[in-house]
Write a structure and sequence with these properties.
17 helices; 2 domains; Growth Hormone, Chain: A; mainly alpha
Amino acid sequence: MSDALSSSRARWLTLVVVCFAQFMVVLDATIVNVALPSIQSDLDLSGEELQWIINSYTLMFGGFLLLGGRAADLLGRRTLFVAGVALFSFASLLDALATDGTMLILARGLQGLGGALVSPAALSIITTTFAEGEERTKALGVWGAIAGAGGAFGLLLGGILTDLLAWEWIFLVNVPIGLGVAAAAMRFVPNTRAETAERRFDLTGAVTVTAGLVVLVYAIVKAEAHGWGSLHTLGLGGLALALLGAFVATELRAPAPLVRLDLFRIRTLATANGVFLIVAGGLFAMFFFASLYVQQILGYSPLQAGFAFLPVTLGIMSGAALSQQLIKRVGVRTTVLGGMSLAAAGLVVLAATTKIDGSYLGILVGLFPMAVGMGSTFVPLTLVATTGVADEDAGLASGVFNTAQQVGGALGLAILATLANDRTASFLAGLGGRPTPADQSAALVEGFQLAFTVSAGLIAVGVVLLAVLLRRRDVARIDMTEPVLVGA
């Protein structure tokens, strides 16, 4: 009895450690948003450079997640976890020391690479530590709440640190946290690895997929200046597709591919990742534009903006907790469809209440249900993406799922920012004269409204795809109340 209790305690201590790291990584994807106006003023950055402060992180994160997942399976999950935390912390220090936009963007990319080692290792540690069934559902419920709340809490913490100290502290705070997490991991986290004879890495695959994604996002961002049908945009788009095609060709021929394409024959994994790619595109952009709206239009300070998003944090945590109960009562498929539908509805309301003379209470009517819907989506989608995956593929499956989130977020922000900027420019051009400050604000709001509306549309597409592609029998293992061992 005492051995069983000790084993259970060890598993939950492992969960605490990896959740701390994931919280730090996810938090950093959004903590920058509230500080963007301060960073822009201090380093004299353009609007395009602001996007790259976000996108350099998410692209490197998403581009190397698959390599991180594969390396975790082969070299040891704790080994990669600790190495990723150390790199992430070092890059955070470089972020804080940045003296211009180029240095900050490059350091953010290095930070994203650290995150690409941490996240798949952390999630595969969970899926190999907790048996599939009720126990894993509980563990991933905690994981989903932490990961979801990390994104929203980043906005709050970013506002507090920027207003009371300086924007550099949004990065410096990671250093002591990272050191503590690495030390705890060495003590409490087991160093498991996949039992396989093949120990090679597909670096070519990692480079081609990352380069392809970077070029694609760059083409989208530059489309506003050069035009969507211009030779510049089409040429870059063609280069991006060629690089991504080279990635697929490499994976088909490589003896140890970065990602085995036959993994996508698992219906649950393929469906969850495809849907999350689309959903993340809408949600990441929402944080970016909402933080700009409350500061540039409502006139909030960074501190006020941070506290304005506290209900979003609470909503996500509430949604994650609620989803665990709903999964037991109505099943994982119904839970995720309901959560995504609620998030889309909240974004529709947010678009309608985002006005030049709007108020915080007005947008909160849309923000809060959107947050609850987000929280209700993260846990069941994670369960769907990891069900039926063998232990030796846990790191790879985790990397694929995190990649869908990061790549979707980067592409979504690039597309929606371009669309919003186009709408703002068109509004100003239609005035026929020199715009007043009020005109400038009205033009920004036009762009924000379009971004929120398209975000809602993306999530609605995700709802339809999930409803069509995911069958109840595909998730029967998750809906069982008793733990089920992988491969049983």
